[in-house]
Write a structure and sequence with these properties.
The chain is of the alpha+beta class and 486 residues long. 48% of the residues lie in helices and 19% in strands. The protein has helices spanning 3-37, 47-51, 62-75, 82-90, 109-112, 125-137, 195-231, 236-268, 280-290, 292-297, 317-333, 367-370, 382-387, 394-404, 433-437, 439-452, 462-470; strands at 94-99, 104-107, 141-148, 160-163, 172-181, 186-193, 276-279, 301-307, 312-315, 340-348, 353-359, 408-414, 418-426, 483-485. The strands form three sheets. It has a seven-stranded mixed sheet with strand order 4-12-13-11-10-8-14, with helices on both faces. Strands 2-1-6-5-3 form a five-stranded antiparallel sheet, with helices on both faces. A hairpin with a 3-residue loop joins strand 12 and strand 13. Helix 1 runs antiparallel to helix 7 (195-231). The longest helix has 37 residues, at 195-231. Keywords: Kinase, Membrane, Phosphoprotein, Transferase, Transmembrane, Transmembrane helix, Two-component regulatory system.
């Protein structure tokens, strides 16, 4: 290896290490900011920390004891006064009162939804045993229990939908229980649902694990390849080959860091200052064009359709373009060759909204994974994502970009039948009624302009849109003859 080649190799390795250091710093800053700012004490999940916020019914906490005595006197009469009921309802914890025989004397409305109590006593055996122990010896006890959630989505339509930013009923609930004696005959059971806290702790652990793995893999490969180049110094062909591999791993590392930077930017900006009126159809066309090379490589058609007239929205154009581009890119990655990805733009005057739907005919998303697809670094199939160059950050970035634009994003999927991602944005009121009156003409004009730019008009697209109609939460898509192939 001559001095010039060796210098290039050293520079590549040094740059890769600097990129690695930047990525670790970004991950550390995100973890601290999210853990401290969003959830406060979420990092301390033990029962002692959570217990500090739970009203106690014994010991030195005379105020709580006196308050419960007032309530318990009413329980003996079988009624709860309106003021007392309101006080109980605004408490952060759910409340159940049982007597020393295990019979239910009072259940707060929120506690009834947990399916812990029946008509006469506790359904949960662990809870019944602990309550009996407290009634017998008067000692306060704390427990954390896990119960199955009985909340399920109904409906016979295939597939399932999820809206980013909403907390969907978990299959299991984590409950923090604080049980203490009120007097010699009654026991108060305070119940706090900490399922979201446990979920966040799991997300944070997954983030640390995933970012460490994603950074370690290319960094380790670069170090190994650099060592191999040293051993192959007398073989120019080997040096060129391994230098190319180092370049590829460095590119992968750089892409990961760039995604982290995009995510940080999306999370830290509101988009208000840079908001401007744009045509959602133009944004979708730009995003589709940016994915044209990947689509052509897999022989996938990208079809842009629109209905309802001009779709004016006031958003950060860069953020919205990034969101739609990521959705189309995902659709291409997870769709087989010779299929179609449809990007549909629709204006809904009655609701005052504009929807952008990206519909694919791909592998779909398993139901058990759908609730987590907008999490950072979460990937349904990690091996497949690495093969396609995915970082697991695309949908997290998309979610924040859409929120930056003042919109919402939801997903519907049926494993084996494809997925539909829907962005919903407020229709820009400043567009005026004149836009609506020009609806039909605008549709035709958009299609002609796209054709003049080199994209051809194609035929009907009813099949992918029929699948959207089956997803109840995504609404109905109007079909028009205006359709553009990218």
């Amino acid at each position: 290896m001559d001095a010039h080649q060796w210098t290039i190799t050293v520079i590549v390795v040094v740059v890769a290490m600097l990129v690695l250091a930047l990525a670790v710093l970004l991950g550390y800053r995100w973890g601290r900011r999210t853990g401290a700012g969003k959830h406060g004490d979420a990092g301390n999940g033990n029962a002692l920390a959570a217990r500090s916020a739970v009203p106690r019914v014994n010991g030195d906490h005379a105020g709580s004891r006196d308050g419960l005595r007032g309530v318990s006197s009413v329980f003996g009469e079988g009624t709860v006064r309106a003021a007392e009921e309101q006080f109980i309802n605004v408490m952060p914890d759910m409340l159940v009162i049982v007597d020393d025989g295990g019979r239910i004397r009072y259940v707060s409305p929120a506690a009834r939804n947990l399916a812990l109590v029946g008509d006469t006593g506790f359904i949960n055996d662990d809870l019944a045993q602990v309550a009996a122990m407290v009634a017998a010896d008067g000692q306060t006890r704390d427990r954390e229990i896990t119960v199955d959630s009985h909340e399920r989505q109904s409906g016979d339509h295939p597939g399932r939908g999820v809206k980013a930013g909403t907390v969907n009923p978990a299959r299991q609930r984590h409950l923090l229980i604080h049980i203490g004696a009120i007097d010699g005959h009654r026991v108060a059971v305070f119940i706090r649902d900490i399922s979201e806290r446990r979920r966040f702790e799991m997300m944070r652990r997954d983030f640390v694990t995933n970012v460490s793995h994603e950074l370690k893999t290319p960094a380790g490969a670069i170090a190994l390849l650099a060592e191999t180049i040293t051993d192959a110094a007398d073989d120019p062909d080997a040096v060129r080959y391994f230098s190319g591999r180092i370049s590829k791993e460095s590119e992968r590392l750089t892409n990961l860091v760039q995604r982290l930077i995009e995510l940080q930017r999306a999370e830290s900006t509101s988009g208000v200052a840079s908001a401007q009126q744009v045509d959602a159809l133009d944004v979708v066309k730009d995003a589709a064009q940016q994915n044209a090379v990947q689509a052509e490589h897999k022989h996938i058609d990208i079809r842009v359709t629109h209905s309802g007239g001009p779709a004016a929205v006031r958003v950060d154009r860069r953020a919205l373009t990034t969101a739609v581009k990521n959705l189309i890119e995902n659709a291409i990655h997870y769709s087989p060759s010779d299929t179609t990805v449809t990007a549909d733009v629709a204006r809904h005057d009655a609701e005052g909204t504009v929807t952008i739907r990206v519909i694919d005919q791909g592998i779909g998303i398993p139901e058990q994974s759908l609730d987590r697809i907008f999490e950072r670094f979460y990937r349904v199939d990690p091996a497949r994502s690495r093969d396609t160059g995915g970082t697991g950050l695309g949908l997290a970035i998309t979610k924040h970009c859409v929120e930056e634009c003042g919109g919402t994003i939801s997903a519907w999927s049926h494993e084996g039948s494809g997925s539909t991602f829907t962005i919903e944005l407020p229709l820009d009121g400043d567009a005026g009624e004149a836009d609506a009156s020009d609806g039909a003409g605008a549709n035709a004009g958009d299609a002609v302009d796209a054709g003049a730019a080199g994209a051809a008009l194609v035929g009907d697209h009813a099949q992918p849109l029929e699948r959207v109609n089956k997803a109840e939460q995504l609404g109905t898509v109007e079909q028009t003859g205006a359709e553009t192939a990218v």
